[in-house]
Amino acid sequence: MATIVPKADFDPSEDAQALRAAMKGLGTDEDTIMSILCARSSSQRDIITEKYKNLFGRDLVDDLKSELGGKFESVIIGLMTPSYEFLASELKAAMKGAGTDEDTLVEILCTRSNDEINLIKEAYKNKYDKDLEDALKGETTGDFERILVSVCGAARDEGVPVDPDQAAADAQRLFEAGAAQWGTDESMFQMILASRSFEQLRQVFREYAKIADHDIMDAIQNEMSGDYQNALLTIGEGLY
């Protein structure tokens, strides 16, 4: 994804006034809102928020929430929210009320580095006064719960050089836990896919393809099912 560079001739007062005008009176000028907020860097949006409060005594994010709706609101509020706070709020929403949005849990948690997971956990704890891992345990079950809690532990072997011998051994373990036997040892897949660094997993997957007549994604498709399968596939898809 492209990074928004700071606007060269940035005038926060002008932007704040234009945003207020876009939300004042009947109707909302969504084009103006988008042209300003989507073309400013994160730090510039923070400055606009402060200037808006100084000029009008109002909270810009609250005004945006009251004036916008649907997907457009989600995009704009996402832009205005620090990224890890936004992800924490998305996780909370995915576990709120009857039913759980498992796809959102997987999308957010299964593709992040240790540092990113820890920042999300910190934001969740600060915002909701509850540990994310406890929330996940209360809303998920079985193998799906175990893989999410493992990933949430932020214990990948990051910062360690890729070990070809370990990768070959892990590939053999995965083969023996799945395609080589009747039934599947899900715990072995969870242990390896949730604890090895992403760089190490790439090597594991290459080694797996050498000893099996299929790749690891085919194995997951054939051996797993449901939300647990989706979680493992999401981890794997980010490495191809």
UniProtKB/TrEMBL annotation:
InterPro entries membership: Annexin (IPR001464), Annexin_repeat (IPR018502), Annexin_repeat_CS (IPR018252), Annexin_sf (IPR037104)
GO cellular component, one term: plasma membrane
UniProtKB keywords: Annexin, Calcium, Calcium/phospholipid-binding, Repeat
SUPFAM superfamilies from the UniProt entry: Annexin (SSF47874)
Claim: Calcium is one of the keywords in the record: yes
GO biological process, one term: endosome transport via multivesicular body sorting pathway
Free-text note on domains in this protein's UniProt record: A pair of annexin repeats may form one binding site for calcium and phospholipid.
Assigned protein family: Belongs to the annexin family.
Protein name: Annexin
Naturally occurring in which organism (per UniProt): Ornithodoros erraticus
Upper classification of the organism: Eukaryota, Metazoa, Ecdysozoa, Arthropoda, Chelicerata
